[in-house]
From TrEMBL:
Keywords: Cell membrane, Cell wall, Glycoprotein, GPI-anchor, Lipoprotein, Membrane, Secreted, Signal. It comes from Zygosaccharomyces bailii (strain CLIB 213 / ATCC 58445 / CBS 680 / BCRC 21525 / NBRC 1098 / NCYC 1416 / NRRL Y-2227). Belongs to the SPS2 family. The keyword Transport does not apply. This is ZYBA0S12-02102g1_1. Residues 1-18 form the signal peptide. It comes from the Eukaryota. Residues 362-418 have a biased composition (Low complexity). InterPro entries: CWI-Assembly_Regulator, Rcpt_L-dom_sf. Its main location: membrane. It is found in: Cell membrane; Secreted, Cell wall. It is a lipid-anchor; GPI-anchor. Residues 362-428 are annotated as: Disordered. GO terms for biological process: fungal-type cell wall organization.
Length: 452
């Protein structure tokens, strides 16, 4: 018992000593006062002797044209440049770590933001920087990246970054290229409304939870193997998609309104957990890159001008089936056979080419088995321009709306993640990166408490 008491006392003493050391390790001159704002270079120069700076540094106002944070290597807090209306250049080229966030917002004259040594930060949020054309980091670790409304033409700041929670670039109208070494995305990867000829390269990416690409000219995902939730390519000018290593999509798979698209290679894709939608891709005539697809957990929709559709391995579709093409050369026979054998299990089935259509509407799954063998609720018409064609256009529009809605949900959730959750996300990474003494304190305190 005496040994136990002595051990507890020793540990508590060590905690007190470590706590005292951690407090005294940073001079008071290197601690930023709460709610203080730097408005001129002299406000920043007073930290030049601080290797570690503690607190949240905010830069704002109209008195600073070119700003620099010199000497500081570690910032235990956040760095914010907000509404600095005359600032054109800012550099913190010795800064290696930011425990919380780097926020650059509404600095309308800012052209260059240089963080040459920056390797670790929890969140980067850059919004409303209409003149920013140069952003430099050496980033290796980050959780959230959100960049919107800048004049960036190329992005090299993330070429060493291998893992993030979310990565969102949108409304950067001059952005032409992005190359990334990302291997995994825990939440969402989104790229939309950037330059008309933007090229994105994610050749090291192996898995992600959600991926949504809009308004992209070229995209490369040659190593992508798995998407846990949704994967969508919507309203792009891509002419081909190489997804040759993709084996599964846990949610919906959507390829919608890509007017230049002529081919998709998803030759290893075997399962889609949600809906499978290929719709309104004007030049996509031969849909042959899905020959190993065996199961679809939702409905399947293929609408367009296709002449060939290779779904030779398809065995099970939990939802309905909609197959509509303007081509008169497409045959519905194999799809009708699959439906009649119970492979398409939903309450509706439509297969239509430019000359004929077959529609089946079922009231329940139990009636599905009856109708698949023949007569009760099957209607067939051989008309190129009749009422069945009119209804097919309505259904086609619904398919596109469904795909767009799915992608919008994904986009909305990511934006909220970037803008609303900065504090909660940053705490974990901050503790891991900048609290070796604090970690010792916590560990010793926990052991002492357990012994008591």
């Amino acid at each position: 018992m005496n040994i136990k008491t002595a051990l507890v006392s020793a540990m508590l003493a060590a905690v007190a000593i470590a706590d005292g050391n951690s407090t005294s390790s940073v001079p008071s001159s290197c601690s930023i006062k709460a709610k203080s704002t730097a408005t001129q270079q002299s406000d920043l120069d007073k930290y030049s002797g601080c290797e570690t700076l503690v607190g949240n540094l905010t830069i704002s106002g109209d008195q600073l044209n070119q700003g620099a944070l010199n000497g500081v290597q570690n910032l235990e807090g956040s760095l914010t440049i907000f509404n600095a209306t005359t600032l054109t250049q800012f550099n913190a080229d010795q800064l290696q770590n930011i425990s919380h966030s780097l926020n650059l917002q509404q600095a309308t004259q800012l052209q260059t933001a240089s963080f040459n040594a920056l390797q670790q930060v929890d969140t980067i949020e850059m919004i409303a920087l209409p003149n920013l054309n140069n952003f430099v980091t050496n980033l290796k670790n980050a959780s959230v990246i959100y960049i919107s409304d800048t004049s960036l033409q190329t992005v090299h700041a993330f070429e060493e970054l291998q893992q993030v929670k979310s990565f969102n670039l949108n409304n950067n109208k001059l952005l032409g290229s992005l190359e990334s070494a990302l291997k995994s995305v825990e939440d969402s990867l989104e790229f939309s409304a950037n330059g008309n000829n933007s090229n994105v390269t994610f050749d090291h990416l192996q898995w992600a939870n959600n991926i949504t690409l809009r308004d992209v000219h070229r995209a490369s995902f040659v190593s992508l193997e798995k998407v846990n939730a949704s994967l969508g390519f919507i309203n792009n000018s891509i002419d081909a998609l190489n997804l040759s290593n993709l084996t599964s999509v846990g949610g919906s798979f959507s390829v919608v309104s890509n007017n230049q698209l002529t081919g998709v290679n998803a030759s290893e894709l075997k399962s889609v957990g949600g809906g499978f939608i290929i719709a309104n891709n004007t030049r996509f005539k031969k849909i042959e890159g899905f020959h190993k697809l065996a199961t679809v957990g939702g409905a399947i929709t293929v609408v367009g001008n296709f002449t060939d559709l290779d779904l030779a391995s398809l065995k099970s579709v939990k939802g309905g089936g909609q197959f509509e093409t303007n081509s008169g050369n497409f045959s519905c026979s194999s799809l009708k056979k699959l439906q009649s054998q119970g492979g398409i299990q939903g309450d509706s089935f439509v297969c239509k080419n430019g000359a004929t259509s077959t529609s089946i509407k079922l009231s329940s799954k139990s009636s599905s088995k009856k109708s698949s063998s023949g007569d009760n609720s099957k209607s067939s018409s051989s008309s190129g321009n009749g009422s069945s064609k009119s209804s097919s256009f309505t259904r086609s529009s619904d398919a596109v709306k469904t795909a767009s809605a799915d992608a919008s949900k994904s986009s909305g959730s990511s934006s909220k993640t970037a803008s609303n959750d900065d504090n909660s996300k940053s705490k974990g990474m901050a503790a891991a990166q900048f609290a070796p003494v604090g970690s010792l304190i916590g560990a010793l305190g926990a052991v002492a408490a357990a012994l008591l």
